[in-house]
Amino acid sequence: METPDESWILFDGMLKPASSPVIPADSRGLMYGDGAFETIRVYRGSTLLLENHLDRLNRGLHALGMDQLDRTRKKTLEGKLYQLLRKNDLLSRDAIIRLQFWRKGGRGYHAVDGHSRYAAVASVCPDYRQYYPVLATVSTRRIPSGCLPSEGKFTNGINYILAAREAADKGADDALMQTVDGAVSETTIANICWIKGTSIFTPSLQCDLLPGITRNIMLDIVNRNSELEMREGIYSVESLYKAEAVVLCNSVREIMAVSKVDGHVFETDHPVVSELQQLYTAFRIEHSKVLPHTS
Question: Which enzyme type, at the first EC level (predicted)?
Answer without folding.
Answer: transferase
